[in-house]
Specification:
Strand content: 15-25%
CATH architecture of the largest domain: 3-Layer(aba) Sandwich
Shape: globular
Helix content: 25-40%
Oligomer: single chain
Bound molecules: pyridoxal-5'-phosphate
Length: 424
Amino acid sequence: MTTRFWHPFAAMGAVAEAECVIERGEDVWVFDSEGRRLLDATASLWYANVGHGRREIAEAVAAQMGRIEAYSAFGDFVTPPAQELTSRLSALAPMPQAKVFLGSGGGDAADTAAKLARRYWGQVGQPRRQMLISRSAGYHGTHGYGTSLAGIELNREGVGELMPTIQVPHDSASALSAAIEAQGAETVAAFFLEPVIGAGGVYPPSEGYIEEVARICEQTGVLLIVDSVICGFGRLGTWFGIERWPSVKPDMICFAKGVTSGYLPLGGVVVSERVSEPFFAPGAPMFRHGATYAGHAACCAAALANLDIMEREGLLARGAEMEQDLLAALRPLEQSPLVAQVRGGVGTMAAVQFAPSLLESDPSAVATAAMAARRSGVIVRTLGQGVAVSPPLTATTEHFAMIAAAIGDALSELERSHAGMAEV
Ligand SMILES: Cc1ncc(COP(=O)(O)O)c(C=O)c1O
């Protein structure tokens, strides 16, 4: 049967008649409509940090819906869970007196941050500061600003004119410095930074890179926007990921995904005092921005229950505790001639990048490998040049071994088919 569901980021010609229907989840496992149990090595789309099927979150949401499901937050309205969540996130954030702007996901967090950065500069008398800088391989969602900021080139293509942005190589602080100088700091609004690049390939920052770009931003006045949509809520072992570099003081932090572990959609921006102050002063203008579901009560209740679980079970720290174990489990895959590199070691996330010769000779190698891993019982995420994993923070070294074995099986399958191709 041809589906009526147009899947995001999917080649529908291939997917339309071959959907994988996930019916249920339990901790690190999901179960499909054919009754197969699959290890969710990707925590769904990098978000199921506390694992699947937590009754406690479902019950918190049901209890909130029994009181009121949601109410507008425009103007002076608010619900208790939105108040409680924003207070809690503000207290956890690595900036004093932070304010929290809520939305429904990571893409609208990135767009909110970009728009607020430009609006901020207008408000403080520097309206020429409009340019936004992002990094190669970076991903900031698929809304207007996020598409414009995309460091994954394919995500910018074919949609006409975008917002003015500059992309700099993700591993070079001096390239950022040069770009700001060439552009003129007085016209640059903000720099977007994923602490560890996720969707673009799992690139941990090189030693000193994050401190250096933060210093460059501070020196030039450019706002530092940390996109922790993947890196937050335990993935890097801290609330917002960026605390791993304690000297860094972001002007804004985008978050989503792990804040609810995906039980309901929620995202937002933690805003420093520097940026919020011009909008909070008596008589200050409003920030004319916000979505219908900002501060949605049931979503905020899901987040609060999720944070409770993380605190009680010590899951926050596990993202850092397990990072070397995950890398160590995958490292031996580098011995395969089909693998160029295994990356990871900062946070519980890793990538296996395929050899250029494989990708050239077989453009569908990544998709083939992901399907083969699935046949071995493990869901991995496809990247442009390999596969990524980011298991729930409840995963153990046994699960890491299963992930490595399944990717190993996939590589063996590719090796066999390529040996066959070579013989033809
Ligand atoms: C770093 C980063 N920012 C933003 C987004 C966009 O989030 P959403 O898909 O919730 O719009 C993502 C999604 O993967 C992300 O990884």
